[in-house]
Design a protein that fits this description.
alpha/beta, Rossmann fold, six-stranded mixed β-sheet, four-stranded antiparallel β-sheet, 7 helices, 25% strand, globular
Length: 248
């Protein structure tokens, strides 16, 4: 049964960008609730603001108006150090273009979030346990035979699986996936979706995935559509607006 209170809540989000002399209004009062353990697909055309929405949910960017809440606490207006900690420990990110560091091998790329989370002394004392976690994840995503390979030596599907392992190494509560199959062929894309679903079901990982591909959303719990800067058919989040503003 779905819990009454959402894990993540977006309330009345507005976001506008400037393109030369023009103002491009991307989000126009968007409301969205995400409950713990859900696997949600956000469906929309290219350029509809799907990536902007994920960046706001994960505090990579701030809304012009509105609020982002995590477990009832507003997070978009936190000091930058607290938002950095949230991105490192609470939210995991996977992107269409992988964003693996080319000079590092698969294990080193996977370990990066842990290296950031620990100071030098803590890293030294805990490096064995941390590396064990990374190796377990890489085995789970099918990369135990590619540990020493650098990104240029991996296929697109392998790079995305390495990116998933990296996103999970700090045990996040929420995984934000931005077109995770966009650069993959159909077979590799379906493999990535099956892997995400397995993580969702077996570990209770909450996942928000944005995509424009209708073929990928059938196995997710809920599909919401991003149309003209708003989410269709998700009205419940609007009721939280007053609460979010009161905590400003």
């Amino acid at each position: 049964m779905m819990e009454a209170n959402p894990l993540v809540c977006a309330v009345n989000l507005h976001k506008t960008y400037r393109r030369n002399a023009d103002r491009v209004e991307v989000l126009r009062g968007l409301d969205l609730e995400v409950h713990e353990g859900e696997f949600i697909s956000v469906l929309g055309a290219s350029g509809s603001g799907k990536s902007t929405l994920l960046h706001l949910l994960g505090t990579l960017d701030r809304p012009d108006e509105g609020a982002i809440q995590f477990k009832g606490r507003r997070i978009d207006n936190l000091p930058s150090q607290e938002r950095d900690r949230l991105r490192n420990q609470t939210f995991g990110f996977i992107f269409q273009f992988y964003h693996l560091l080319p000079e590092l091998n698969t294990v080193e790329n996977t370990l990066l979030p842990q290296m950031i989370a620990h100071g030098a002394w803590s890293w030294w004392w805990n490096r064995g346990e941390i590396r064990k976690r990374a190796l377990e994840l890489l085995d789970r995503v099918g990369l135990s035979h590619r540990l020493k390979h650098r990104p240029r030596e991996l296929s697109g599907g392998e790079m995305q699986r390495a990116a998933i392992a990296r996103a999970l190494v700090n045990r996040p509560r929420v995984l934000l996936a931005d077109e995770p199959t966009g650069n993959l062929d159909s077979a590799n894309g379906q493999h990535i979706i099956r892997l995400l679903r397995e993580l969702n079901r077996q570990e209770g990982l909450t996942i928000v995935m944005v995509t424009h591909n209708l073929d990928l959303v059938a196995d997710t719990d809920r599909v919401v559509r991003l149309v003209e800067g708003r989410i269709e058919a998700d009205p419940n989040a609007a009721a939280a607006f007053d609460t979010a503003m009161a905590s400003k």
